[in-house]
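The material for today's practical consists of a large collection of protein records. An example says more than a description, so a record of this kind follows:
***
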Amino acid sequence: MGPTLKVLGVALLLGQAIRWLAMGLVPFADTSEPRYAEVARLMAESGDWITPWFSPGLPFWGKPPLSFWAQALGIRWLGLGEFSSRLPGWMAMAAVAWLMHRMGQRMMGVPAARWALLVFATMLLPFVSAGAVLTDPFLALGVTWNLVAFYFLSLEPSRRWGYGFFLGLSVGLLSKGPLAVVLVVGVVVAWCLWHRPAREALRRMPWLSGTILMLLVSVPWYVLAEIKTPGFLHYFLLGEHVLRFTDPGWAGDLYGSAHERARGAIWLDGFLAGMPWSLLAAGWLAAALVNAPSRERLQASLHEGSTRFLVLWALSTPALFTVSSNILWTYVLPSCGAVALLLGRALANSTAHWPRRAAGATAIVVPLLFAGFGTASILRPSYLKTEKFLVEAAKDNAMTSGPLYFVGELPFSARYYSQDTARSVELDAVPSMLRSTKGEVLIAVRHSEAPALHNLAGTAPMELVMTSRRYTMYRVAAAPRAAF
């Protein structure tokens, strides 16, 4: 097993090297990354650390500010760019991996902890999230910190882990809100009911001083945010935490659209998030169930408190969102660490050689696929739904007559890469816009609407400048007024 772990350790380092290169070279693609990156950019530019802004004048009430604080600091320290905005997410996931490894060492030994680290780092969703501009890595950090701290408290008294539990709650509250508390409390209560010795952690918890610490860290921002932009608490607590998950077509979403899915789809998301390890685990589990000795060992392991804890942790997030149809696959990220620990223990304790041999090939699947995707997106940027290169072409063809116009809705990537100078115009408003323009303007239109733009422009000369995956950009000269 030792030499295998060394080889897989090299694979782990190579995978992270690929991830770091991609963090700086792959552009933001619509929708989530450039949207959150633009919120962080506005925070860094304005110096407003209380209210995240969706656009100048429109507060972003959809998420608490922890991820935006980290990303804005990255921009302040390293300059505006993909790497500076993505680095905080990688650091959050690295902290999750460290906490997992600490728990794995104490719970099941060093070899199993190393296997778990390898599994986690090469799972699809954790690999993608590590170095992405998302809020989910910070929620995963808060939940992992909470549950690791509670597990250690169940073993022995510890002021460090006691207060760490409440600091983890603060991270969750400042990254996603009360959802983090629900995820943690569900696992803690279920484990205490299923495994009586776990209740010892409840008696060792510094409830009074820890609660005060949590409130001092997290509540002031909520109060200041409501004072600064009244209505925040109602929208965030009711809309984002109740209506978003109970109303598939929630019309109150101010910043995007509802993600209507079939109820129970979160379990498929969990299987996808764990790829390719979920395939290995499913095959391995099926083989164990038909083999009597393996089945008995599996049943015996469920009597262990640590196994019960990890099973509850792994099931907590998909169980919570089972009845919700307004979901994203990133919601299962807080449970991925527990899945990795369970699989790491199974790999370390396996009496068969084929699972570990299969793990060697499994560990390189996601990094290799990501390397191929990153290379393709750099060589052929038209593969991505990003307007970075179109905006750069517009800057190279800068006109004194006005900004770059996008016909219809303005893509988030265009907002970010133009630093909010790009503008949107409805198709039927193009003639009036051209009438009020002197000289030439740049207009980006979806490929399917290009013929309609030609018709509306009338006799105004149009010159093709560049095409992206979704848009064609033209240089349009204002025609005589009579033409309209």
Remarks:
- The longest helix spans residues 82-108.
- The longest strand covers residues 440-446.
